[in-house]
Prior knowledge:
The structure holds 2 protein chains of 2 kinds.
Chain A: E1 4-7, E2 10-13, E3 19-25, E4 31-38, E5 42-51, E6 54-57, E7 64-70, E8 73-78, E9 87-94, E10 103-105, E11 109-113
Parallel strand pairs in A: 2-11
Antiparallel strand pairs in A: 1-3, 3-8, 4-5, 4-9, 5-6, 7-8, 9-10, 9-11
Chain B: E1 5-7, E2 10-14, E3 19-24, E4 31-37, E5 43-50, E6 55-58, E7 61-66, E8 71-76, E9 85-94, E10 100-104, E11 108-113
Parallel strand pairs in B: 2-11
Antiparallel strand pairs in B: 1-3, 3-8, 4-5, 4-9, 6-7, 7-8, 9-10, 9-11
Amino acid sequence: DADVTQTPRNRITKTGKRIMLECSQTKGHDRMYWYRQDPGLGLRLIYYSFDVKDINKGEISDGYSVSRQAQAKFSLSLESAIPNQTALYFCATSDPQDLNQPQHFGDGTRLSIL
Amino acid sequence: SQQGEEDPQALSIQEGENATMNCSYKTSINNLQWYRQNSGRGLVHLILIRSNEREKHSGRLRVTLDTSKKSSSLLITASRAADTASYFCATDTNLTNNFNKFYFGSGTKLNVKP
């Protein structure tokens, strides 16, 4: 089983709909992140969380919200989806005690807003 | 923006050849990491090089860092078809509470022909 699991893997929806993307992890990491990936732009940070009581905005948080329901779960919501939110979304975790500081990524959710 | 920029955007080589990818960034960093992304999958951490290091090796990977030029290179020696993937550099800056916020580049797409 994957350490970082994202659901759904693919989603097509219409403008104005509310969308929730789920992320769960079995790594026991306190830190979790949401990124979006667009062609030619790399990954951009949307939100990050140090623990269940700590939520922080990233570079591009407008139009998004998050919820850290438990150490293992971090969900991303689009309250009213718009076409320019069409992208590949990744959840990641990290352990600040790991000296190599890797981020561990899920396999992504491909989201299309029509 | 501190975002890393990879060069070239795409690289096609024959199996057995070496592949070199470059990353440039704009501001001072704590660390620089390289990640690999296979098609349809999340990013996988390859290697981290700290700002006080100049070169690091891991198997067939060799990473260099030149902080005076604000650049890094990733060399994959004796490439294999399985190395076909996109490669990203990620630079970080220490914000608060020992949190290193990462900035990802737009990636180099490597194709290794058998």
